[in-house]
Every structure is written in C-alpha cells, then in structure tokens.
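Minutes, project huddle
Topic: does the predicted pose make sense with flavin-adenine dinucleotide bound?
PN asked that the exact inputs be recorded in the minutes so nobody has to dig through chat later. Recorded below.
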Amino acid sequence: MRRRDFIKTTGAVVAGAVILPNISFGSQSSKNVVIIGAGISGLAAAYKLKQSGVNVTLIEARNRIGGRIFTHKFSEENLTCELGAEWVGKSHTRLIELCKEFGLELQNHQFETHLILNGEYSKSGGWDFSPGWKQKYENLLNHFNSLQDGSEEKNNFDKLDWWRFLVNQGIPEKDLELKELLDSTDFGESIRQVSAYAGIAEYAESSEKNEMDYHIKGGNSRIIFKLADAVGKENIILKTKVEKVEQKNNGVIVYCDNGNKYEADNVICTAPTFSLLKINWQPALPKDYLDALNELQYARIIKTSVLFSERFWKDESLDMITETLPHYFFHSTKNQDGNKGILTSYAVGDRAYVLSKMNEQKKINEICKALKPAFGDIEKYAEHAVNYYWGADAFTQGAYAIYNKHQWLDVREVLNKNNGLVYFAGEHLADWQGFMEGAINSGEDAADKILNS
Ligand SMILES: Cc1cc2nc3c(=O)[nH]c(=O)nc-3n(C[C@H](O)[C@H](O)[C@H](O)COP(=O)(O)OP(=O)(O)OC[C@H]3O[C@@H](n4cnc5c(N)ncnc54)[C@H](O)[C@@H]3O)c2cc1C
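Predicted holo structure (tokens), as shared on screen:
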C-alpha cells in the first residue's frame, strides 16, 4: 500500500470504532465545531468547515498560532529563517494549491549537499555512495514501488527498522554511515529507530530532492496568517489550554484552563500525543487508543540559525552534512537579498539534546568549529544566533512523530480512529507524516468526516 493511500483505506475501519452514536444535526450551518490547536492542521480543518457554513472555534494553548510552523525574522536585516517547518515538497499538492489560492509565492529552496566526514571536506559532486550500492538501492526502491498495496511482502517492511533492513541488504559500512547521517535528519532520530516501511516509503515515493523543494517567500508562517484571516481571527482563542473534553449523547463540552467552556456538536483534536494524553477525556479513550498514544515517540530536533555578517560560503544553494554535533547545515537565506546571511544547523537525537544545553556563544563556537574544514576561521563573521529545541517544547516534546518498527501499520491505524463525536487530526496521523502537507490532509479529512456525518 502506498503511504499516501493508507489513510483513505483505513477510513473504513474508523467507522466501526465509534463509541457513541453519530447524531444528525440537520443543516451544516447549524453545526458548531471546536478545534483544539491552531497549527496548520487545525486551521486547514477550520477553513474547510467554514467554507461549508459550519461555525468553528479554534482553541490554542500558545500565545501564537502556527504551532510547529514558526518563522523567525532578524528584523534589522529583514532576513527570515524557519525554526520549525522548512521545505514545501513538489509532491505536496494541497499545500501548493493553498499557497496559490492565497497568492503566496513559492521560492526554490533546493540545495546541493557538501560533506564533512572524518574531518575532511568534500564539495557537492565530490562525494557519493559506492556505485554498487547506488544501483542496488535504486533496485530496492523500484521493487518497493512495484509491490501490491497491503501485500504480505510490503507489510513485512514494518517488522524491521530501517538500519537493520539496510544491513540485511548488505550495505557497505561507509555507505551505511552516510545513510545514517543523511536519513536521520529526515526522521529526527537514528535510523535504528525508524520503521523500514516508513524509511523505504520516504525515499521511494518522494520527489527527486526528497520534498526539499520550495519555501514560502517571506516565511512559511505566512500560510498560517492567511488561513487565520480566512477563518476569522475572532474565531481563534489564544493562550487557552483545553483540559477536559466531555461527550454527552448529543454533543461535546470542552473545558479550558481559564474556566471557560464551549459546547459543540463535534470536536477536532489536533494536539500532538504528549498534549493529547494530558486532556481528561470523558468517556475515557479506548484502551487500544491509549496504548497507541503511549507507544508513539517524537523526534528531538534543534535548529540553530546563525546570522553571519558575510555569506562566506559563496554558494547560495549550500547545504552540508557532517559527523559533528551541529550535524546538518543549510543556507536559510537562499533567495533573500542582502550581504549578511543565515546558516542553520539542524541537529537530531542526542546531538540535539547536547546542543540544547549550551548557551548561545557555545552553540556558535560548535557551529564554527564544525564548518572549519570547509571555510576556515569563520567565527569573526558570526553576529548572533537564535535556536529552538523541539525536544523540550511544552506541547509536543518533539519535532514530529517517529514511527518505529511495528508502528507504521499498527499504531497509526489505531490513532486514526475517531472517538464518538471527537475526531483526531495532526501531522502524526497523516500519510505525509512529518510534513505540513500531512497535517493539512489530516485536518481536512477530519472536517470531511464531520461534514459527511
Ligand atoms: C524542526 C522541524 C522541522 C520540520 N521540517 C518540516 C519541513 O521541512 N517540511 C514540512 O512540510 N514539515 C516540516 N515539519 C513538520 C511540520 O511543522 C508539522 O508537520 C506541522 O506543522 C504540524 O502541524 P499540526 O497542526 O499537526 O501540529 P502543531 O503545529 O503542533 O499544532 C497543534 C497545536 O495544538 C496546540 N495544543 C496542544 N495541546 C493543546 C491543548 N490542550 N489546548 C489547546 N491547544 C493545544 C499546540 O500548541 C499547537 O499549536 C517540521 C517540524 C519541525 C518541528
């Protein structure tokens, strides 16, 4: 089964999981829906519902909308970088469509990858996987794409982790080291913690640059602001945390930390699993659902963006994979005018945690040290840095979900079930999991289910 088709197929299973009867409330215009979370999933759901005449109220715990889409502006220089979601993929059709609808320009954000390994620098094009492995890998991806959806052979990929699968295929040691360094930046933790199903689907079904294709001119948060305008800012309540959701026979009551409560015909909850588990659900969530929530982990990622007084790297399309603590780098200000520029370090797993413990100057030191084999002493150009460590984020405790072996097919299927009048959405449930596109798709799917109920 192709990743992108999976959710639609499981929709049939979902219907059987309803624990309270579905109630018809007559015309959609009389419906009230409360949406927990004003990230892109909640906003996309709200936009769709609003277009069908449904009254929506979004409740957001943070003091800002956007959740894991979080553009930072270095105001004096008029340069932006992303502390959350970075790339829009060529295959992310719904996001691209929304950008068009709202008049947002997509800029090229593709890079040519340089390498620092064993302290030695190789320019892009000056390093590669071994020819034998490259051919074998391509055959493996093609074979995966030829497999029947739902077939035993295809589903068996979920029984192994991505690292073990590659080892079993005889990947040479040096190629495996490169694969770990590169792929762990996609998943946010070691590939030893990633289902081989999720691993191979990621590369077999993605665009040539692995969905690292575009960026929204002016910052990805602009899609958030456009959606919020379309939904109506008066319908978005900030700095309010949902603490309890109680279902009665004919509706839902949502209780917030400030004592306010909201009545609704349906609720869409887009909270990541860490936050979702903190909500008091009445009636309680089914045991299999709770087990699945408890099983799923999120990746630890830190982004550290350093403003440099000069673009000493010369190559506007620079990105660089390294074995060092700051791990992976890319040029955030590609296509942004100016002499100054921003390089962002993207570190995952334990590296991210260690970096998060350092103060700003130490982080800058580590970043400059890591880049030294390529550019020499660059600390003199470093002005200052901003960072965000998602592993300690109060609402996600991670950047995005990471599906380990036995989880892609099993855990995700359970988490996609609705609970009576409450529907779940968010990045972690989507076929395009870990992407803005997936968050939009799952929000719109939840809206569709309500519209069709
Ligand atoms: C470092 C990083 C890099 C990424 N890179 C990319 C990329 O390059 N390309 C890409 O497409 N995607 C990327 N992503 C993923 C993308 O950001 C997410 O898939 C998407 O933004 C998730 O949207 P969401 O609405 O599902 O969740 P969120 O954005 O997390 O929204 C959920 C909202 O619910 C709120 N909430 C939680 N609990 C409660 C409560 N009890 N009451 C009220 N509100 C609550 C939260 O505050 C949050 O705002 C990246 C993410 C990170 C962190």
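Observations noted during the meeting:
- Residues 129-209 form a domain with the Guanine Nucleotide Dissociation Inhibitor; domain 1 fold (CATH 1.10.405).
- Residues 36-42, 59-62, 67-69, 84-87, 241-242, 270-272, 275, 279, 301, 303, 390, 395-396, 399-400, 426-427, 434-439 surround flavin-adenine dinucleotide (CB under 6 Å).
No decisions taken; revisit at the next huddle.
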